[in-house]
Amino acid sequence: MEKINLDNKCILVTGAAGFIGSYLVHRLFKDVKGATIVGIDNMNDYYDVRLKEYRLKKLNVQCSMFHVQWHFVRGDLADKDLIEKLFAQYNFDVVVNLAAQAGVRYSITNPDAYIQSNIIGFYNIIEACRNHPVEHLVYASSSSVYGGNKKVPFSTDDRVDNPVSLYAATKKSNELMAHCYSKLYDIPTTGLRFFTVYGPAGRPDMAYFGFTNKLIKGETIQIFNYGNCRRDFTYVDDIVEGIVRVMQGAPERKKGEDGLPVPPYAVYNIGGGQPEKLLDFVNILQEELVRAGVLPKDFDFEAHKQLVPMQPGDVPATFADATALERDFGFTPKISLREGLRDFSEWYKSYYK
Q: Which residues have C-beta within 8 Å of that of residue 165, sequence separation ≥ 6?
């Protein structure tokens, strides 16, 4: 592994106004000295743009408190000329590609968005990394690539050739493209398979956020697979800790017996390794919403939940084997579900009420 000191480096974060991206940029502000950080985001309306503007405003305020240069570009990864221009202007040392069209269910009805952002957009980024060599490309993959795999916990050694959503297929495609470019052009790449990321200022299309929006309106929430789905929930600060560590450890460049590069390529899971039943998760959420004062103390939760069958594109369980991340970077996610949902509930009250 090649160690990278991020101080005084030029770093690109795509999806910088997104959930994980904004947390990562803030963390880099705090931890990295003398860096130039460039963020790009197309600020699309897949969910409430005001939330993206809120995250971006916080970053613009925070950056003045730290000794970093911060530049934000409102633009789309599918705009090849723009991406080429940015790479030529800044000569990035490290690139973190978090921009993507997210969501399993949305991919069933809006496939074009996934091809544009996750395939063409990723291609433009990795092609720019070829034309303007970088020390490390880190990119977001997803636990969705495991599809309906029956073997748990999910290991990066498992075959992942049977995606059950277009979203998952695009993420697996990113991994394949990265391997190809690592082999052909000696570009160090690391993919990170995120497991159900949640936290304050998260994505409203995620279950915990959508459930909260419905419950405060007195609506009924639908809990799929009769509450028996199991998810490896990962708090956003744990995800960011993993990303920052991985950014500093690029797969080593070396030659194989054929004289060609051994692909400097790696993929890791980032997940808590403690799958929770969806019904238990929802019970903890409503307890923390009551505790934070988002819901009244006498809220009748039983009257507002409905157990329903599985949805197309969903999988019954996600469960991360994160031993490789622990082995190579000394890190395993640690923040408990109750602690994370407490933080979310308190943020929700302050943001909306």
A: 104, 107, 108, 144, 313
pLDDT digits (tens, 9 = 90+) for 97-142: 999 999 888 888 899 999 999 999 999 999 999 999 999 999 999 9
Whether 313 shows a pLDDT value over 70: the answer reads: no
User: Mapped to the 3 state alphabet, what secondary structure does the chain carry?
Assistant: CEECCCCCCEEEEECCCCHHHHHHHHHHHHHCCCCEEEEEECCCCCCCHHHHHHHHHHHHHHHCCCCCEEEEEECCCCCHHHHHHHHHHHCCCEEEECCCCCCHHHHHHCHHHHHHHHHHHHHHHHHHHHHCCCCEEEEEEEHHHHCCCCCCCECCCCCCCCCCCHHHHHHHHHHHHHHHHHHHHCCCEEEEEECCEECCCCCCCCHHHHHHHHHHCCCCEEEHHHHCCEECCEEHHHHHHHHHHHHCEECCCEECCCCCEECCEEEEEECCCCCEEHHHHHHHHHHHHHHHCCCCCCCCCHHHEEECCCCCCCCCECCECCHHHHHHHCCCCCCCHHHHHHHHHHHHHHHHC
Degrees (nearest 5) of the Cα angle 6, 191, 206?
Answer: 105
Active site residue 167: yes
Measured distance CA(154)–CA(157) in Å, rounded: 8
Structural domain boundaries of the chain? 2-198+233-272+319-334
What is the SS3 assignment for 58-93?
A: HHHHHHCCCCCEEEEEECCCCCHHHHHHHHHHHCCC
Please tell me which residue in 23, 114, 139, 167 is annotated as part of the active site: 167
Architecture of domain 2-198+233-272+319-334: 3-Layer(aba) Sandwich (3.40)
Which residues lie closer than 8 Å to 341 by C-beta, 6 or more apart?
198, 208, 284, 285, 288
